[in-house]
Amino acid sequence: MTRQWVILTLIALVLVPSMVELGFWQFHRHERRVAQNGLIADSLAAAPVPVEELTSPGHTVPRADYWRTARATGTFDTEGEVVVRRRTNAEDRVGFHVLTPLVLADGRAVLVNRGWVPFGADQTAFPEVPAPPRGTVTVTGRLKADETTGTSGIKDLAGLPPRQVMLISSAQQAERLDREVLGGYLELTEPRSGPEGPEQIPAPDHDSIGAHMAYAVQWWLFAAGVPVGWVVLVRRELRDRAAARRPGTPEPAPAAG
């Protein structure tokens, strides 16, 4: 056991468990993706229910209720409307999401994400936003949880232009509107806004499972290949040393590594 072989063996002993662990990490990501796809599919297929049955002021929407189809009846409060910065549409264009409170019959409100609008010439100015329907209206949408920096990766910046926010937070909007706001928000699906309205947010992808399983198998194959490669190198080293002991055979150079 030369110094080179001791180092090579130690590297192999470190690589094998590391690659196995990386394989399981990708496998668990695959499992989470499959579970999420199933949750999305079940939620989208469920019959619509009144939003008040799923959430209330201060309520944290549980994962089991993500993307549930909910209905709400009320009037849109355009004066309380804000836009959410740095949001993309289906073509990855950056703009705003339009967040409009829908005031319910009991005076409480639910936030409705009406969709995407592009930036104007001045990104610090409130954009031109098509008005929502007037009067009492019944809307249908996908229930989502309040956004946080931890769940979204978006930093909640201070000092933004008026009526612009970084995160969709029912607690923040309740304080600003000075009224009770149901926890979470609705991604509007009905009524359709039409070509002149905000571009509605498409349904979440729940068909693709990604390449996590393929990556997991790849890491496990790499892990299996390390000891096989080590054995191959050992056998070649032994063969070369045996040949070197024969008369007239030059001493081979040590194996790389």
TrEMBL record:
Question: What are the coiled-coil residue ranges?
Answer: none
Report TM segments: 213-233
Alphabetical list of InterPro entries matching this protein = Surf1/Shy1, Surf1/Surf4
Name by which UniProt lists this protein: SURF1-like protein
To which species is this protein native?
Streptomyces sanyensis
Keyword Ribosomal protein attributed: no
Q: Which PANTHER family does the annotation name? A: SURFEIT LOCUS PROTEIN, SURFEIT LOCUS PROTEIN 1
**Family annotation (CDD domains):** SURF1 (cd06662)
- Where does the record say this protein resides? Cell membrane; Membrane
Q: Which domain of life is it from?
A: Bacteria
Q: Which family does it belong to?
A: Belongs to the SURF1 family.
Task: List UniProt keywords, sorted A-Z.
Answer: Cell membrane, Membrane, Transmembrane, Transmembrane helix
Q: Does the keyword Transferase apply?
A: no
Q: Where is this protein primarily located? A: membrane
Q: How does it sit in the membrane?
A: Multi-pass membrane protein
**Which Pfam families does the protein's record reference?**
SURF1
